[in-house]
Please model this.
Amino acid sequence: MSGTSVDAIDCALVNCSESATELLATHQHSIPSETQGRIADISSSGTNEIERMGPLDRELGRLFAEATQALLRKAEENPNRVRAIGSHGQTVRHRPPSQGSAADSFTLQLGDPNTIAEITGITTVADFRRRDLAAGGEGAPLAPAFHAAALASVNHNRAIVNIGGISNVSLLEGETLIAGFDCGPGNTLLDHWIQRHRGQAFDRGGQWSASADADQPLLTGLLKHPYFKLKGPRSTGKEAFNLQWLDDVLKAHVSLPHAVVQATLAELTALTIAKGIRTTSLEVSEVYVCGGGVHNHDLMSRLNGHITPLVARSTAELGLAPDWVEAVTFAWLAHRTVQGLHGNAPAVTGASGPRVLGAIYNA
Model:
């Protein structure tokens, strides 16, 4: 899994059965800064896109293959014992039907699965999102189906929150997934703002945002984004929430210190997640968080302030380390695909029905 933040490739070795999903080993594989730059460039419209995209697709395929091999060496595992690789790919465009015309909607992930299968000798499952989108769905988020399979519990109404580049929530009534959607920006704006002004990859522990108070007028301006008015199945990405959008909003708040902007962005993430948990008919009794945002103490504190008396806890308390939930998700989805089982959740994406996701590239 390589997410919106493009900070690394998360790899998980997983044993999937009908009754359990067991995490056996993990590896975080670095992405060269030059490659990160090329991903950033292709993620917005520009000249000569096809000529730039084609080589990057192959380059990422090689990088994902190297990450897989590194994981297997670390785990001292024979590649012949691996049934399949589930590769989400690197999203460079996501234009779902909730944010425009259904006829013009599409989603695009790079990381050539042919190259992955050729280098590793392991069957590769990829392109998970487009079948759901073809069936009228958002193509995202896909993790809620896994959250329901692995983290639900009878007689417990749970919200499973993922705070990656974008935040999303899965709402579970006992073992039933009743809804799931992207809430808005997770870490993406926080990361980009501190990279711009402090040269740091991320706000470790939320120390910078905790050093200031959020600015209410700026927060009000940020909350005017059209995405926050959407209801029902919905998904978003860096196409909607990026520094250009932030800079446009900041034109009306030019005197704010940089730390205040960071604090306001943290408040935006926490508030929109809390609204996602609260603005449904489900009376949530437990909240569990995964993704990199769980390590941002200021962000978690702000979230807890908005959901009190509930307390957000790490998915580690449910037996699944928060940093690896998304990587495990795509191993589970690959398992579903090779078994001929559906992987989407129509209640989440709005697809017309359950679908087997992805394409299989044989070893």
